[in-house]
Amino acid sequence: MTLQQLEYIVSVSKEKSFSKAAAKCFVTQPTLSMQIQKLEETIGATIFDRSKQPVVPTEIGKQIIAQALRILMEGRQLQEIVSASKQQVSGELRVGIIPTIAPYLVPLFLVDFLKTNPAVNLVLNELPTEQIINHLKLDLLDVGILVTPLKDQQLQEQPLYYEPFVAYFNEKEPALKKRLVEAKDIALERIWLLSEGHCMRNQVIDLCGEHVQALQGEKPYLYESSSVETLRKMVDRNGGLTVLPELSTFEFNEDQQERVRYFEDPEPVREVSLVTHRHFVKISLLQSLMDEIGKLVPEKMRVQKKNRKILRIQSAKL
């Protein structure tokens, strides 16, 4: 049994095809197939059901592939130990980031991170939470920048910051007369929401109350967006209100800033974390990314305070 053979079976599992896996591994398909067959003979078990298309692992094959992933991750730990001893930060870092964070965080840290770490090849992908979690478990991503807590035993979470939610109103909304607002000031019949599948949608519902579903049903139309920026534009042009993450308001013009209101205590926030597989080994790369983001995020967001409430991300079902 060799590490190369383990790489091959993991690649076939990811690509669900022997030919695609061979191309990813830069070998011919006969070479890859022969090495996998040798591995199966060595361990006395069939790893893949070759009669099905796309290729799928057998039941015992699933367990073997999971163990192979762990072995390969541990093997990479050797390289990390050597790199750390030389105080080098180098290599590839594959990062997945959700769409409600990416437009506001990536521009803050990207250029500075690459300047500080010129030997790092940073690969950024904007993906939904569920896909990032799946890619972390399959070793297709190294790190996810996600809203937490996820409560997943296979993953580790390193909180980065605690971002307040703010209410954003059209100029005609009566709640603008208040300096601070409460959840009851959010007129649910006029709220603009993100579409299903976004954790921020569930957090807003957690803040405002699950009866938002019934009130949304009373509208003569239904519009739900996949973009925080679209929510803001809908408020500006069509009236009503929405709830936004604070970082999204930092480039607002003066008129828009005047229509932002913070919530009374306990202030609703979202916990944003670096998420990795529990067998993650690129510790120096992770620490460098964490340090760079930490320098650029407003100081008030870096520590969770008693007067804040972390909103749930999985409780509301609409």
Task: State the gist of this model.
By secondary structure, the chain is an alpha/beta fold. It contains eleven helices and 13 strands.
* CATH class designation of the largest domain: Alpha Beta
Give the class from helix and strand content and strand pairing: alpha/beta
Distance between the termini: 49 Å
**What's the number of domains?**
3
Order of helices and strands: HHHEEHEHEHEEEEHHEHEHEEHE
Subunit arrangement of the protein: single chain
The CATH architecture assignment of the largest domain turns out to be 3-Layer(aba) Sandwich
Q: What is the CATH topology classification name of the largest domain? A: D-Maltodextrin-Binding Protein, domain 2
DSSP strand count: 13
Mean pLDDT: 86
CATH homology-level superfamily of the largest domain: Periplasmic binding protein-like II
Low-confidence stretches: 213-217
Profile the largest sheet.
Answer: 9 strands, mixed
Task: Provide a descriptive summary of the structure in words.
The chain has helices spanning 3-15, 18-25, 29-43, 59-85, 102-116, 129-137, 199-208, 212-217, 228-238, 254-257, 283-296; strands at 48-49, 56-57, 91-97, 120-126, 143-148, 155-169, 180-181, 193-194, 224-225, 241-245, 260-263, 267-277, 308-310. The longest helix is centred in the first third of the chain and has 27 residues, at 59-85. It has three domains: 3-82, Winged helix-like DNA-binding domain superfamily/Winged helix DNA-binding domain (Arc Repressor Mutant, subunit A, Orthogonal Bundle), CATH 1.10.10.10; 88-159 and 275-301, Periplasmic binding protein-like II (D-Maltodextrin-Binding Protein, domain 2), CATH 3.40.190.10; 163-268, Periplasmic binding protein-like II (D-Maltodextrin-Binding Protein, domain 2, 3-Layer(aba) Sandwich), CATH 3.40.190. With 318 residues, it is an alpha/beta fold. Strands 3, 4, 5, 6, 7, 10, 11, 12 and 13 form a nine-stranded mixed sheet that branches. The protein has a two-stranded antiparallel sheet with strand order 1-2. It has a two-stranded parallel sheet with strand order 8-9. It is elongated and about 75 Å long. Helix 1 (3-15) crosses helix 4 (59-85) and helix 5 crosses helix 11. Strand 3, helix 5 and strand 4 (120-126) form a beta-alpha-beta unit. Residues 213-217 have low confidence and may be disordered.
